[in-house]
Amino acid sequence: MSVSASSITVDDKRVELPVKSGSIGPSVVDIGKLHGQTGIFTFDPGFTSTASCESAITYIDGDKGVLLYRGYPIEQLAEQGDFLETAYLMLFGELPTPAQKADFDYRVTRHTMVHDQMNRFFQGFRRDAHPMAIMVACVGALSAFYHDSTDISDENQRMIASLRMIAKMPTLAAMAYKYSIGQPFVYPKNDLDYTSNFLRMCFAVPCEEFQVNPTYARALDKIFILHADHEQNASTSTVRLAGSSGANPFACIAAGIACLWGPAHGGANEAALKMLMEIGTPDNVAKYVAKAKDKNDPFRLMGFGHRVYKNYDPRARIMQKTTHEVLKELNIKDDLLEVAVQLEKIALEDEYFIEKKLYPNIDFYSGITLKALGFPTSMFTVLFALARTTGWIAQWAEMIQDPAQKIGRPRQLYVGPEQRDYVNIAQRG
Ligand code: SDX
Description:
The chain has 18 helices and 7 strands. By secondary structure, the protein is mostly helical. The strands form 3 sheets. A 3-stranded antiparallel beta sheet has the order 5-6-7. A two-stranded antiparallel sheet has the order 1-2. The structure holds s-citryldethia Coenzyme A (SDX).
């Protein structure tokens, strides 16, 4: 696609709008000076056609089903690397050398403990509080403990805060899980890798030794890689907007967690598994596909559809393969997988889904695997947030260092009342 130049004429005044091209993907029309030169705004609720920033971290080709992290295909990173390698790649832009990887793993590992007073912070929650509510609160509270890494103008403090966020998310996530089941918190161990450490903090108990199952650890590490980043999705855009005001990184990540919780976004993995449980058997699938197509029925197939992917989400393909591998390896027969496979088959052959280009997304299969690994549905979005923290913090750091960065402040199309005078309450009918 070649876009040379563009212009707009407002009240007989022609305004040239420069076109900018990136390294790959669609070009953009720079409308930064449009209002100043014409007095009008553009209008794009949901930002369906709007680029909010320049970024070099992740690239998606929604038509081809391509996802690249710093240019590397997600399939290769998921199959050949580990999650902390992906985190390093996100933060620094290149794959680490063996020495750099060892140093990064060492530094992250030694930030996994949280301030011990966080334990008391948890006591304020009901045991049945949703773990995402706890995560929003606890991550935001981190800025109350780590004053030495909240000055965003200091590069070293930004790096320490980034390492702390990546390192402490598993610890807080495990604490939220343990608190919900009434078991004591388990401290991290420095001789375990990132994901094994997390699994042990979730499933170990003080009464006996705990050995991490390498199949579980490998599967979950791969799931974390798949969830690490995804361009300017709703939660990443939230983190960037919060960060554009100069808010500290812990507060920005807490804002991202809050946004991710929505069922249209990261909450879809929990909603998708609940949907599969509600469908129950492959025989019921056709009825639910009909509900999803019915304009008068608010029901949607959770884990289906995507703003960008108008082809199969490449992460969903890897997720589906991982689900089959984990269930086979653990000798688990989950009827919900049969429901999911049948649902996918029927939907992908249905004219409604074909015409609207609705395919399974990352959330369609992830819940079945996470359930097989022993997590309750309430923890699914917490695991998404744990992994996405790497992308959020890399995008936040990129924004802070962008010389063009300024506070985000969208405008609007006003449709309210024109100016009118106040009426004293004694005169109102
Ligand atoms: C994530 O942005 C990201 O990158 C997100 C994410 C990431 O890694 O950060 O990939 C993670 O959030 C994945 C998406 C998880 N959400 C779900 O699975 C929830 C179900 N999906 C839908 O709510 C929806 O598909 C969205 C929210 C994901 C995308 O919505 P869009 O882009 O705003 O599209 P739309 O709602 O305008 O839908 C287009 C049409 C509509 O029909 P019409 O009004 O044109 O007639 O498709 C229909 C929708 O009704 N449609 C669906 C559907 N999704 C869209 N119909 C039935 N079932 C669905 N799942």
